[in-house]
Sequence to fold (327 residues):
Amino acid sequence: MREPKKILALNFGGIGDEILFLPALSSLKKEYPQAKITLALEPRSKSVKDLSNLIDDVICVDIKGKHKYWELFKFLIKARLGRFDMVFSSGANQLIPVLLFLTGITYRYGYESGALSRILLTKAVKLKKNQYASKMYHELVTPVTDIKTPYPEIDAGEVEKEPNSVLIHPGVSKMSVAKHMVKTWKPEIWAELVKKVLATGKKVYLIGGPDDKECIEKISAIVGEAPNFENLYGTTKNIMDLARLTKRAEVLICSDSAPMHIGVGVGTKTLALFGPTDEKKLIPEDERFIAIKNNCDCRPCLWDKRQTTCDELKCLDINLDDVVKLI
Fold:
């Protein structure tokens, strides 16, 4: 096999999924440094390109929109005209091998999903879901490289650490709440945590995205004009601003959300709240990255055992003093 000049990768999902996919792209780039990498993703996640120099171009495919079949047709046209040498896809759907075959790309890699995957793919990789997602995605590239990249790497530039600083991102998703998938504390609990952290002499910064506006307003109202407390909501203009702010902080406290993956990517000590989701699949085993959890008998449940969270949410009942000790 001659060295590829152009590589296409498909990974549909939210921005967190795209960050988790970066290690696979990193190993490909190290193996084939001259190759240009194009990433096909959903429009909502295209900002991942701003976090990494691994991605030369993106193809947006709105697979969850009203015209998903038209979107897939347009993608196929772009893929065929792109003259790619290799294609990798993280999709586990049984029709993914057909989609990759129709691109006309010679070397095709994806997960084993049945007879079609074994026939139409150059190599069908066994899907192992019960592991850190970055490692799971990375196994897609093992047929072409022995290089290992353990977790995402985000280049946020030279940023000086601010001593005794704690960045808190409550990570509320209105869509998740609407679908009854609750993964984070109520504003009142976050506010109590802020007060406890401030009492240790740390400086606390509060940050969030558009979905967090109401939550952050409640937290700020409860905390009030406290010394060493600053609400930075609205000061970040893009995802790289958030990455730099995260890198500047000594500690990031957040929920299971995209900011957690950014914390991992910039190497900031990250304390991530895990209620109903499985921390083993979403945060790497590293002393810098710590899962805040309550080991109740019913967790983890979300996505593995059920599609919504329960009403009791015992998994989010965590002693805040224990969280402060982790800082």
